[in-house]
Design goal:
Length: 87
Amino acid sequence: MLPKTILQTLALSIFQMPIYLNLAGEQNNKIERMKFIITSTISCFHNSSVFLKPLNPILGETYETMYDDGSKVNFINLTINIFYSYF
């Protein structure tokens, strides 16, 4: 098992999303806005390699973090199935 829970791993994998989503919100052009939204989604994939070992899903676990830009994210694990995450 990894020493981190699945919620901590998810928080680490999406740390760049707020940067690109804020940039998307500043765009007036719809095409440029969509490019930043797609970039924010793709930026999460490079950290997906941490799922090489099983993670320890804890039912009812909560995790809260704040990113450098001030974005605050709350996670809660509502199921043992690691494929469902609500944030």
